[in-house]
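User: Hey, quick favor. My workstation is busy. Could you predict this chain's structure for me?
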Amino acid sequence: MIIKDIIGTENLKGLKTGAVMTCNHFNAFDSFAIQVAYEACVEDPKKKKFFRVIREGNYTSFPGFYGFLMRNCYTLPLGSSPKVMAELLKATDKLLNDGHLVLVYPEQSMWWNYRKPKPLKKGAFRFAVKANVPIVPCFITMQDSFIKDDDGFAVQEYTIHIEKPIYPKADLSNADNMEYLLNENYRVWKEIYERAYHTKLQYTTPFEVKPEM
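Assistant: No problem, here it is.
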């Protein structure tokens, strides 16, 4: 993992409340890149800790050293049972109200080194609306480095974009606020993608699903 640049650190440094951080998901370890960005922005990690929501399979069956990290280092498992989901909602609500940061992948899927934003699910935005805290859209753009990995592919250089917090609106219902935050998050990601790659965002293959926006 090579982090070339972090853009928008001021958007996280000035945040006084808890927040849901969102990020595109394209690598099993991209959450560590966001943690690096967090460490570059937050002056007192005791007052504003960084947590990540991970899928149940990563929590229960990820092997070796990284499996240890998945199970023990500020992770929140997204489980399939109603009881685990209830505990997740309770935990995220408390953490956000206590002023901490929770990273959620709203795409709820991982496509290796896929550069475009994918369709978003509402879960991340439900957390934010319930706790009445903002989302902080983050989007990682990539470019090939001159280093090859063990399979012969170019190791990617990451630029981490941290955008301004987006707050729920007081005059909207919970459902409408979730929809509002989802649409705004996608709009911001789309703008970053087009600015960074100098191309219009288009979905061109049958494997891609164009969001209804």
